[in-house]
């Protein structure tokens, strides 16, 4: 474990220091980590800028100037925030960044995604120490609010004039751990929708059986939604598609009943009942078909149902195309990226769609080729879980991988116009 007066002389110590800032929702502390990252970047001779599109929600932008400013730049993105943690369910406090004798660093954010933030900077430190000079300019962004949808974070950043001035040609954002020896790379995310369905119905005595009660109407809908969920999950269970290639719909809250001081009134049937769902749509999904299904089957007016869909971000790019980055010869960055992983001595798994969602969708919306990548092999997937950890050896290896990636991408001159 770490001494109380922690020095910052090693990459692991700097990673631990960053992990100790509590940037969990609902009250993330953004000020302290931004000032830590700012001084870290300045000690490396990098230019820093803090942009504040919404008060108290800073985006930190770090720049390593390239030798040829006429080429488009590279952007390495990560988010400052994390999901909450329940300390009582953890073996080590979630913001202690405890390093165990077997080299595991326990912290909320160790995988998602504070590892890449420090790895980007450590890779630059090492490249600078070897007098490497990038041809393309390299930007690193640290954005707020990814975990709550990115509306005040990456979305505002990519739509700003400051972003336009960066002339970004290619983006790397976070990915996900790999349980195998191969690195995973993501060319698309699923898009999130929040769905709230509300039933109204005939109220009445708890003892009566009658048709068209609110609870009955809601439960009918839940059964229908669950059948759809099964139909999607069966495809995955049969091995015909990955989790991220089907539509997921999972109930996340239920709200009904007439409250009483001891809980709920038990002999009255309520006139209203509500349920909330997390939906994730693969990039090629036709949203109109899903909306039709919701209107006609999941929350039909004939069963006294109403609904609200909250689309958390874009589904299509500015040209109306699905938000997918090409993984063929039409995207020159793909082959440069592949070569960089090979040069690092790594193996790359088949590119995937990410089951969850990242800020990459906002960059893809602009048509900028964007991959999701977090260099974690042989690591259990613990994002949003209890006891999230990353092994020191995996973290350090990731720095080397980014050195190769930055070297290759920033020296790539052919794609001058992309
Ligand atoms: C709702 S926007 C995405 C937030 C988070 N990264 C998730 O996938 O759940
Ligand atoms: Zn993340
Ligand atoms: Zn997350």
TrEMBL record:
Organism: Salix suchowensis
Record carries keyword Signal: yes
Subcellular location: Cytoplasm
Enzyme class: hydrolase
Pfam families found in the cross-reference section: M20_dimer, Peptidase_M20
Main location group: cytoplasm
EC annotation from Swiss-Prot or TrEMBL: 3.5.1.14
Family to which the UniProt record says this protein belongs: Belongs to the peptidase M20A family.
Keywords: Hydrolase, Signal
All copies of domain Peptidase M20 dimerisation, residue ranges: 194-297
Protein name stated in the entry: N-acyl-aliphatic-L-amino acid amidohydrolase
InterPro entries reported for this sequence: Aminoacylase-1_M20A, ArgE/DapE_CS, Bact_exopeptidase_dim_dom, N-acyl_aa_amidohydrolase, Peptidase_M20, Peptidase_M20_dimer
Superkingdom in the source lineage: Eukaryota
SUPFAM superfamilies: Bacterial exopeptidase dimerisation domain, Zn-dependent exopeptidases
